Amino acid sequence: MRPESNSVPLLMSALLSIGALGAVLPGTACAQTGTPPADAPEVLRFGDDLERAYDEPFFPGTEYDESVATPESFLARPVGSRLARHDEIVRVFEHWGETSDRVDVAEYGRTHEGRPLLRVVITSPENHARLATIKRAIARLADPRGLTEPEARAILDSTPAIAWMGYSIHGDETSGTDASLAVAYHLAAGTSADVLELLREVVVVMDPCLNPDGRQRILTQIEQSAGYVANLDHASMQRGRWPYGRGNHYLFDMNRDWMVGVAPETRGRWRVALEFHPQLFVDAHEMSGLDTYLFYPQADPVHPAMPATLMKWQKAFAAANAAAFDRYGWGYYTREWADGWGAFYSDSWGSLNGAIGMLYEQAGVGGQPLKRASGEIVSYREAVHGQAVSSVSNLTTLARERRAVLADYLAGRRRNVDRARPGGDRAFVLVPGRNPSREARFLDLLLAQGIEVQLASAAFTARECESPLAEAADTRTFEAGAYLVHAAQPQAGLVAAYLDFDTRMDDETVLEERRSLERKGESKMYDVTAWDLGRAFDLDCTWCTPGPVDGAVLETVPELARGVVPSADGSAPVYAFAVDGADDASVRFAVRAMELGLAVHLADEAFQAGGQEFPRGSLLLRRHENAEAFEVTVHKVADEAGVRAFALATGRSEGEGPDLGGGHFHLLARPRVAVLSNAPVRSDGFGHIWQLLDERLRLPMTMLDAQRFGGQDLRRYNVLVLPPGSIRRALAPHAKGIAAWVRSGGTLIACGSSVAGVLGEEFGLSSVVLRRDALEDLDAFAYAAERERSARDVSVDFSELWGDGASATETESDGDVDDDEASAGADASATEADEADEEDEEDEEDGDLEQRDGWMRRFAPAGAILRGIVNEDEWITVGAGPELPVPYSGSRVLLAREPVRTPVRMASPAALRLAGLLWPEARERIADSAWLTVESVGHGQLILFAAPPAFRGWFAGTARLFANAVVYGPGLGADQPLGW
Ligand SMILES: [Zn+2]
Question: What distance in angstroms lies between residue 171's CA and the mean position of ligand 1's atoms?
Answer without folding.
Answer: 8
